[in-house]
Structures are given as structure tokens and as C-alpha cells.
Amino acid sequence: MEFGLQISQKIGFSPWWSNAISLVDRLSTRVAEFFSKVKKIGEDDPRRIGHSFKVGLALTLVSVFYYVTPLFVGFGVSTMWAVLTVVVVMEYTVGGTLSKGLNRAFATLLAGALGVAAHQIAIHCGEKGEPILLGLFVFVLAAAATFSRFIPEIKARYDYGVTIFILTFSLVAVSSYRVDELVQLAHQRLSTIAIGVVTCLCTSVFVFPIWAGEDLHKLVAGNLEKLASFLEGLSAECFAEKGGIENLEGKTFLQAYKSVLNSKPTEDSLANFARWEPSHGRFRFRHPWKQYLKVGALSRQCASSMDALATYIITTSTKSKTNTDPDLPLRIRAACKEMAAESANTLKELSTAIRTITVPSAAGRHASAAVAAIGKWRDALSDDTALPQVLHVATTASLLADLVLRVQKIAGSVEELASLAHFKQPEPPVHDAKIKPVADEESPSHLSITLEK
Amino acid sequence: MEFGLQISQKIGFSPWWSNAISLVDRLSTRVAEFFSKVKKIGEDDPRRIGHSFKVGLALTLVSVFYYVTPLFVGFGVSTMWAVLTVVVVMEYTVGGTLSKGLNRAFATLLAGALGVAAHQIAIHCGEKGEPILLGLFVFVLAAAATFSRFIPEIKARYDYGVTIFILTFSLVAVSSYRVDELVQLAHQRLSTIAIGVVTCLCTSVFVFPIWAGEDLHKLVAGNLEKLASFLEGLSAECFAEKGGIENLEGKTFLQAYKSVLNSKPTEDSLANFARWEPSHGRFRFRHPWKQYLKVGALSRQCASSMDALATYIITTSTKSKTNTDPDLPLRIRAACKEMAAESANTLKELSTAIRTITVPSAAGRHASAAVAAIGKWRDALSDDTALPQVLHVATTASLLADLVLRVQKIAGSVEELASLAHFKQPEPPVHDAKIKPVADEESPSHLSITLEK
């Protein structure tokens, strides 16, 4: 029995011990992973650390109003509103802080005045009528203001202001039923909110300022550079004299344009904030930020074309077999190389021009050279009069074939959704066709041909 | 002299009068425009009007706590927090309200507890040490919490919670210096915030609920339908036996896919909110919302392919001249028509399957037919062994040519930016090349050919 007890002790003890060790192990790996992730976020953009300290600084500054008795006596409990304002108004960029601060200040002023007016009207309606009328006012104004947020222009610029308007009007109108010195209270709140906004603005502008306009400027220039690196890679790897379009799937340059495709929300919000920013560095107050959005939209269209091209190249490169070498493709290839290289040069020039705020001088020359290369390609083809006709239809067909494969992928994905979400079976099971996932190597979707080496 | 006076009176009077009339005219047109816009926003989605009334209702409900004396006595001025909570927590969808409400409740609880703990530590440091230590706590926690918002996972789901955490901790820690009955105050605030959250949730869930999940479901299905309508239009207008690719620029079906390209932010936010929603209608709590995002991402890729195809077709259709009719293009065109039509059928089937939550039965058949059409196109080409080689290079070149034109458009746009933003001239003016804006009719960018009629 003693032996059995020892064993059971051993069994009981060992798993607990090893479990605990493995738990600690897993936990420490997790913690280490988390910290390396946090470190990376800080290293990617050290301004993030600066921003975090700025928020701490602004909060500590504004809380001095609590600690210093003569300051506190002036505002009383309303000092709370200064702290509250700092927390919600402080944004990453100067423009963001300005936009929120001004929205908050003006909305509070307007809603406070309307709230006091509502109170003045309501007190003439007697003991019982007052809360009913106040309730009606709050209902109508809150509903109207909420609806106004669906208007795109208001949503983009004054969304926060509308929230604060509803908030302040409700607070003033409703609490006017209980508070006697309403005007004094409103005055205290306004002053403390102003203190909060001013604290935020000073911290934003004077301590390592982060300008939304500058970020937008850099983002747009950087995106042009990414597009250029795709074309450079293409010209070097695909159309080089000794190169060939084979096994390109892993190449990094084929991914370069991808982040550009989803840049719209970031650009829109930066441009929205940049409008509020005062003149800073090389940017005036009325800098043409909207034009950056136009360049951004064209860049995304360009990235979309690159997506079509990259997909086509990757799909065909994986099943390249033929290796003939007539003259025609060589000439076309030279034209392709020129188109890609000159377009890359154009984009690089444009990116540098934006970065250095200099008129792009050489970009026009490169762009013209790229367009001239299109002409060379056309000339290479026009030797055979029957060919162009076929080529046009065939290009359309190639693009369509890519589309067909992408639709098939969607079909597979929806089928997966149907099984994950337990979609019901169709009532009369007429067809029992199954969607086969796309196996790129086997599908008869593309011509099994390549550029000759 | 009297005559002169009359004239000057007439001159002085008439402009003021007509100015006023034209001002009133312009103003009334503006107001009429504004109201027709507002009406359209309401008609586009009548649930917006419902939401506005719901916000008004929730606010009126929660302000009852002010008007009814026994309720007010229990909470005092803290009742304000209930009103404040309703204004900031109430969102358009149930998931949004739930996400914000839970974030607010838990962040307040956690930060409140930490704030009380910070106060307990600080009071042991004497009269002078207390504000310094409290300030230090606020600084460190606010900085750390702000930095945590840069972690993408936290930003996506708990951004609002972190704001409330900083807010509550600062308020509790800082005001603990002045307030004696801290725990009672914290208790009152928590209760009133809970009242606010519960009011919002009840109004959201029980009065015309708007589910983020259902919206996501409909959005994804609707996007598939849009893609299908592009392909249907293509098959009917471009590859019909009597049709031809000419003057397509104005056709609406060529725009059908465009809104799909920018659907990512909406889908992301809806999926984020849908995760919080309880089981409703045909959707369980753990519905695979992530799979919808996958379908959405593939739909955007598909739309990107359509963009390349539509651009190619539009550019070439405007300068179509040749009208020969060999057999080869006819066969290719038939294959194209089949690819487009069958893909459109696939997408329509998938959209209907999602809409009706039924396993897609016929979609697989249509997808296979579309892939089979790719084979037919390949067969049509393989009659001539030299052709495929040329075709591949030519397709690549076509896509590149589109890219070149898009790059040229970017160049024009940046040039416009340079003039709007007064970019400086480059130092040594070596080149004086000018970028000529792209004139689509004249640029030698594409083959001037069409499909035969």
C-alpha cells in the first residue's frame, strides 16, 4: 500500500509540477512576444512614444487645477470638465486635436446657449409643464442632431461636434430643472473646457508636433515610390535580357503596390485633419490638400492595374514550358522593358518632386518616353496585319480568364461560409455539383507559354 | 439738381433691392436643395430616421431620473453620467452599442478600482507627497494606455475602452485629492453609467433593432450582385452576336464594380460590431463573420480585375476602326461571351445563396462552365503554334500600356499640385520638358482595333 501511495503521490505531483512549468513557459513566451511586438510598434514610428508622453503631460498639467487650492476654488467640481476634455480631445496629429478642440468648444457654446434658452421657455409652463416641455425639447433636438450625422459632409468634419452638441444641450436643459445658478454653472463649464482645449493645443503644437499635413505629404510621396519599385522590379526581373518570367511568386517587388490599394481611409482622414492646421514648416494654411487626394486616387487606380498585371504574370509564370525564340517577342519585350523602366523613372521623379517640394522637371520626359515605347510595341505588331485583331480579342480574353479564376475563388469561399455558418440545403435538390477549389497548377485557365529566355 | 438726386436714389435703391431679392432667391434654392438632400438620405435608408428617434427616446427615458424626485435623491448630480453615457454609447447598430457599452462599463470598473487603489497608496505620503504621487500615477498610466492604442488589435476592438479607462482613472485619482467620500462617489457613478448602458441596450435591441451582422450579410451579397451585373452587361453588350465594343464609355454597367473597390472599411467595422451581437434572426452568436471578410476581400480582387478589363475595353473602344471578320476572333468571342455569362451566373447564384442562407447548388456548375470556356479559348488559339507565344507577351504589353497611361495621369496630377502649392523650381534647370495631359483620342497608346461587328 505504501508503494501504491508513493506512485499516486508521484503521479499526482508530477503533472501538477510539469503543468505549472509548461504554463509558466507558455506565459513567459507570450509575454516576451507581446513585448517584442510593443517594441516594434515603438521602433516603427518613435513619434508614437512621444505622443503617449504628451498625453500624460497634458493630463498632469490640467490636473494642477485640482491640486492648487486657489485655482480649485475658482472652478470647483467643474475642474473635472478640463480633465475630461483633455482625455477626449487629445489626438495624434495637431490637425486632429484642433478639429476636435474647436468642434468641442463651439458645440458647447451653441448647445449651452440653446439649453439656457430652453430653460427660460420651460419655466413659464408651471411645475408640471416644465419637465414635459424640457423632455420634448431634448427629444426633438437629439433626434434632429442625430439625423444630421447621416449627411456625409457633417459626418466627415463635424461628427464630434454634433455629439458634444447633443450632450451639452441635454445636460444643460435637463439639469436646469434641478440647478438654480444655471448661468454660473454654464460659465464654469465653458471656462474649464476652454482650459482643457488650450492645454491640448499647446502640448500638441509646442511639444514635438505631429502634423497631419506633413504625414499626408509623405504618405502620397511614399506611395508613388512603392509603385515605382514594382515597375523597377518588373523591368529588371521580367524583361531583362537574361531574365525570364519564371517562379516569380515569391518576389517581394510583386507585393510592393498592395498597401497602396487600401490607402484611401488613411489619406481621407489625414486630409480632413490637415485642413484645420495653421501654416507650418513648408505648408501654408490653405495648402491644396484636396489635390493630394486626387494624386492618391490616381495612385490607387495605378495599383489596381499593377494588380491585374502581377496576377497575370504570376499565373502564367508557374506553368511556363515553351521556349521558342522568334524575333517578334524579342522586340515586344524590349518595348515592355522600356515602358516599365521609363514609368518607374517617372514615378520616382514625381515622388522626389513631392518630397523636396520642387517642380517635377524630368518626369515629363520619362512619361513621354514610356508613351513612345507603346508606339514601338504597336509598330512591332503592325508588321502582320491580321495579328492586331486577334491580339485585341485575346487580351480581352486573358483578362476575362483571370476574372473567371477570381470568381471561382469567391465561389469556394462562399461554399466555405455555407459550411461554417450551416446554410440550409436548397429545397429541391436538382443539381449536386460541387465547387472544386482552384488548384493553380492544374487549372486549364491560361496559355502555358512564357517569354523566351 | 433734384433730377440728379432722384437718379442717385434710384441707383442706390435698386441694387439694394435686387441684391436682397437675389440673396433670398439663392438662399431659398440652397435651403430647398438641402431639404431635398436630407429627404433623399432618409429615403435611401428609412432606418436612419428610426435611429434618430431612438436616440431621442433613450435620452428622454434617462432624463426621467432627473425629473422624478425619489430617483434623483438616490444618485444626486451623478445622474448626469447616465445622460452622458447615453449620448456617447448609443450607436447605429446593436453591435456598435453593445461594443461601446461593454467597453465603457468594464473600463470604468477597472479604472475606478485602480483609481481608488492609487488614492490609498498616495494618502500615506503626506500632505505634500500626495499630489506629486497622484500626478505621477496619472502620467504613467495615461502614457501607457495611450501607447496601447497603437497596438492594432486593441485599436480595433478596445479603443473606446482605453479612452474611458484614462478618463475614469484620471478623474478618480485626481478628484480623490478633494473628495472625501470617494467610494460612495465611485459607486454612484458606476450605477448611473450602468443605467445609461442598460437604457441604450434596451432601446437598441427592442425598438426596431439594426443588426451589424445582418447589414454585413446583405452588403457582401449585394457586392457579389454588383460584380455579376458588370459581367452580365459585358456579355450582353460586348460579346453579343450583333453587338460590338464601341462607345461604351457612358454605359452604367461599366461602373457597377466601382463601389466594391472601397468597401473594406465598412466591412471591417460591421464585422467588428457583429462579433458582439447576440443570436438574432437567422444568425447565431458565433456566426463566422470572419469568412464574410474573406469573401469581401476576394470580391475586391475581382473588382480590381474588372477595373483593368473595363479600362482596356473603354480605351480601345473609342478608337475602333478596323472591321475585318476572320474566323478566329469569332470563336474567341464566343468563348469570351461564355466566360462572362457563366461567371455572372456564378456570382448571381452565390449572391442568392448568401441572401437566402442556402447552400449554393448551381454555382459550382456555372463556375466549371466558365473555366471550360477558358479551355475553348485556348483551343481556338492552339491551331497556330507560333501565336500563343506572341499573345502572352502582347497581353503583358497591353496591361503595361494601360499602366503607362495611368502613370502619365499621375504625372499630370502632380504637376497640377506643384502649381497649386507653389512648389519651388529645381536649382539647375537642365531639362524643360513639360508633361502634356493625356488626350485619350490622340495618344498612340493602344492598338486601333475592335472586335468585328
Automatic annotation (TrEMBL), chains A, B:
Parts of the chain that traverse the membrane: 74-94, 106-126, 132-151, 158-178, 190-212
Region (Disordered): 427-453
Membrane topology: Multi-pass membrane protein
Pfam families found in the cross-reference section: ALMT (PF11744)
The UniProt record lists the keyword Lyase: no
Keywords: Ion channel, Ion transport, Membrane, Transmembrane, Transmembrane helix, Transport
Cellular compartment(s): Membrane
Entry GO terms, CC: membrane
Biased segments, Basic and acidic residues type: 429-439
Iron-sulfur in keyword set: no
GO BP term, pick one: monoatomic ion transmembrane transport
Protein family according to the UniProt entry: Belongs to the aromatic acid exporter (TC 2.A.85) family.
Protein name per Swiss-Prot or TrEMBL: Aluminum-activated malate transporter
